[in-house]
Design brief:
Layout lengths: L13 E5 L4 H12 L3 E6 L2 H12 L6 E5 L7 H15 L4 E4 L15 H26 L5 E6 L12 H20 L5 E7 L6 H6 L16 H7 L10 E3 L2
Parallel strand pairs: 1-2, 1-4, 2-3, 4-5, 5-6, 6-7
Length: about 240
């Protein structure tokens, strides 16, 4: 997508991004702050979140907040409290970006360990379900709110050895479509983005022998995210977008 974001695109918007400590989440968080947003950085590694926080503070535009959450270990109560905190501190939430994902281990289906299967589903599906469930009332406080799920090419067509991750992304797209349909005639919109082959740590673990110089950087794929976060996409819901 060739989209040029205006400098004030996200002015006075509050945006929560999961997996904000590295990769696409980190890059998107800094860009959102540059465009005027208050950014809530959610992740499990506090030191990484603090580094992103410092970069945002150095912009001297908007403030950022850190929410340390381990999506694999958080209980339903954690998500209820998280929603209460966001509502109390900000009064509304303009956007939620489900960026965090767990790859698991690529292996033949019969060799997938149930513990690893559960962890991938917990991070990629269950955490997104609970977080969205409790944040929808907070998103509804905004004039127009956007929720972005992260999918993958293996969430559209299954691929050998990608078992848990592939299945989790099929589930992610299904969840997005169900919620989008439920809220079709509301101020809430729900879409999914497939980032494609991007220079991130997760990509490197899946394709260790790949020539990374051929990959797009997170900075190069942000256009579709910014389009869906801004008001030009108010009428767009239930869609899957490819960032590349």
């Amino acid at each position: 997508m060739d989209y040029k974001a205006p400098d004030n695109l996200l002015e006075n918007k509050t945006i929560l991004i999961t997996g904000a400590g590295a990769g696409i989440g980190k890059t998107l968080a800094i860009k959102c702050a540059e465009l005027g947003a208050n950014v809530i950085l959610l992740g499990k590694t506090v030191s990484k979140l603090e580094a992103v926080y410092d970069q945002i503070e150095a912009l001297n535009k908007q403030s950022a907040a850190i929410l340390p959450v381990d999506l694999n270990g958080a209980s339903e109560e954690h998500y209820r409290d998280l929603a209460d905190t966001v509502l109390r501190e900000y009064g509304k939430l303009d956007a939620l970006v489900h960026n965090a994902s767990q790859l698991g281990v690529l292996s033949p289906f019969t060799q997938v360990e149930s513990k690893m299967w559960d962890e991938v589903m917990q991070t990629n599906v269950n955490a997104a379900f609970l977080m969205t469930k409790y944040l929808i009332p907070v998103l509804a406080k905004a004039p127009h709110a956007s929720t972005i799920f992260t999918t993958s090419s293996v969430g559209l067509k299954g691929r050998a050895y990608w078992g848990p991750y592939s299945v989790s992304k099929f589930a992610t797209e299904g969840m997005m479509q169900v919620i989008a349909d439920e809220y079709e005639n509301s101020t809430l919109r729900f879409n999914a983005i497939n980032p494609g082959a991007t220079k991130t740590a997760m990509r490197a673990s899946a394709y260790p022998a790949e020539d990374v110089s051929l990959l797009k950087t997170p900075e190069q794929i942000l256009d579709v995210y910014l389009y869906l976060l801004g008001d030009e996409s108010i009428e767009v819901t239930g869609q899957r977008f490819n960032a590349q």
